[in-house]
Amino acid sequence: MSSEVWTWRDNVLLDPQGREVALFRSGVIHMGIHHILTEIQRSEMKLAIAATTSKGEVFSLAQDGFSIGRLSANCGGRRYRLDRVHRFRRERLLKDSEGHAFARTCPAGASLEVFDHPQDCAVPDLDFIFLTWACKEADNPTRLYT
Fold first, then answer.
1. Count of CB atoms situated within 10 Å of the CB of 89
2. Is residue 144 part of a domain?
3. Is there a domain that residue 53 lies in?
4. N or C: lower Cβ tally within 10 Å for the chain?
5. Is pLDDT at 70 greater than 90 in this prediction?
6. Can you tell which superkingdom this protein's organism belongs to (predicted)?
7. What is the pTM for the complete model shown?
8. Number of CB atoms found within 10 A of residue 37's CB
9. Has residue 146 been placed in a domain?
10. Which of 143, 116, 120 minimizes the C-alpha distance to 49?
């Protein structure tokens, strides 16, 4: 895996060279000509995110159990796990349906750092952007119950 760092800073995803890759604004993730319309449902006990891409694919994310420590996602039929690596840390390991890790996330203040995402990863770009943005929403404490 790569040691390059991607970063969600505020509502902008930056690649390892510092270039803007995606932008979240007014409930929509923008990536070039592609868009993902998001809807977040959260309470003290539940987090669920539903989304639709400009291609018409349906994406979703939900917690498994009572806490947000284990999350499952479905991006147009492609399934993912986004589980915390330790019970008391907000760092997550992102895995595809076969259990292969393709990224690791770690909140850093209002930002989210994304490590180990190889440039030749088989995970589609829209999936990667949605999944990392969802980790930012789940693990950024300033956003939890607003």
1. 12
2. no
3. yes
4. C
5. yes
6. Bacteria
7. 0.90
8. 14
9. no
10. 143
Summarised one tens digit per residue, pLDDT across range 36-50 is: 999 999 887 889 999
DSSP 8-49: EETTEEE-TTS-EEEEEETTEEEETTEEEEEEEEE-SS-EEE
Would you call 138 helix, strand, or coil by DSSP?
helix
Instruction: Tell me what percent of the residues of the chain surpass a pLDDT of 90.
Output: 71
Contacts 24+ apart (CB under 8 A), 103-107: 103/128, 103/131, 103/132, 105/132, 105/135, 105/136, 105/139, 107/136, 107/139, 107/140
- Burial environment of residue 144 by CB neighbours within 10 A (0 to 12, 13 to 18, 19 or more): middle
Distance CA 115, CA 105 (A): 6
Domain boundaries, position 24: 5-139
* Residues facing 93 on adjacent strands: 83, 104
**Number of domains, the chain:** 1
Confidence of residue 95 (pLDDT cuts 50, 70, 90): very high
